[in-house]
Amino acid sequence: MPILVQKFGGTSVANAEKIRRAAGRAIEAKKRGNQVVVVASARGQQTDELIADAKEVHPNPPKRELDMLLSTGEQQTVSLLAMAIDAMGHKAISFTGAQVKIMTDDSYTKARIQSIGADVIRGKLDDGYIVIVAGFQGMEAGGNITTLGRGGSDTSAVALAAAMGADFCEIYTDVDGVYTADPRIYKKAVKMKQISYDEILELASLGAGVMHSRSIEFGKKYNVTIHVRSSMNNNEGTYITHEVPLLEGILVSGATIQKDLAKITLNSVDNKPGNAARIFEHLAAAKVVVNDIIQTEISADKANVSFTVGKSDLLTAQEAIEKIRKGVHCDSVFVRENIAEVSVVGVGMRSHYGVANMMFKALADLKINIEAITTSEIRISCLVDIKDAIKAYETVCDAFELDKTVEKRNQPK
Ligand code: ASP
Ligand code: MG
Fold this sequence. Notes:
Blueprint: E1 3-8, H1 16-31, E2 35-40, H2 46-57, H3 63-87, E3 92-95, E4 102-104, E5 113-116, H4 119-126, E6 130-134, E7 137-140, E8 145-147, H5 153-164, E9 168-173, E10 194-196, H6 197-205, H7 213-222, E11 225-230, E12 238-241, H8 245-248, E13 254-270, H9 275-285, E14 290-297, E15 302-310, H10 314-325, E16 332-345, H11 355-365, E17 372-376, E18 379-385, H12 389-399
Parallel strand pairs: 1-2, 1-9, 2-6, 3-6, 4-7, 9-11, 10-12
Antiparallel strand pairs: 4-5, 7-8, 11-12, 13-15, 13-16, 14-15, 16-18, 17-18
The structure holds aspartic acid and magnesium ion.
């Protein structure tokens, strides 16, 4: 019998009615001839509430204890789900991560899964149970409970699917799939039928928070097709899979916009080995997350170094730069606040030319100035002034026909 893993996010199990609906889905899947493993998150905003509880008694809670507390959210959901399935006349059993041997390293609050023992689950599946596993948690070698980082239930689910040899993992959530663009800003965005692992990872790094990134890495490595879909209806959602010929022919699959960014430029620093390392070492020590970095040589012995950071990190970044500035003989520091980054992502860029040009032309037609450009193999990003951001995003989405499903686009296929 095929094994199917179904994951229910917090909003999909927020109350008794939704828990019953999730239970019903698991039962249906079993009736269709699958062995069913369910992974669940904490109900509603419970993880946030537990964090708030912790902060009430400790300004900076010890991480081991925090994980002990946070893991209880998921534990409640899985036992309730098992009860709901039982009440509907089917066999179900719930487990914590530790009970099914989801082993992690010992980085509390952001642990990484190292191995999963499939035996316990397999035994119960063979006995006819629907097996329900608490997401987001595991156990380190010493027996302590760990959690996988916010949103980590996705990773529990896909890792379990991989460990059980399942081909599919269904992610039930409150949106009906992955969209070509942010539908709150670009109203014409459409749901994608499929997208590749690489594209979704790139979109996630640009802040389009669809799935926990580690879950995509597991899916890619162990060939688990991930189906992101709504828990409120039976519509097909978006399949996350390896690149298929259809996807390769699409220039751009999705576009993102990041608004709260600032850019810092160090003008005319010494163009010498080790200088970039020194600058970014200081930023890392100050725990500043750096997005894009651009360095260009401006003469034989001088270079300009620019990078972007989230606005909330700007002050810390400036302080860090002040400390290193003299050491690298930087002439002046230029800070540009109020910028936004518009990006397009698509595996088709690997094999088609002219994609960057299409993006620049769309912006030029509206006389929008591009402050900086960065690229990866499957991404092009333009920094623009915040006042132009929405306009820029919309025109780029239009240019790549992100208002149409792939079949209806006019671009080279
Ligand atoms: N409950 C956890 C969180 O809120 C894990 C998850 O939802 O995936 O981050
Ligand atoms: Mg989530």
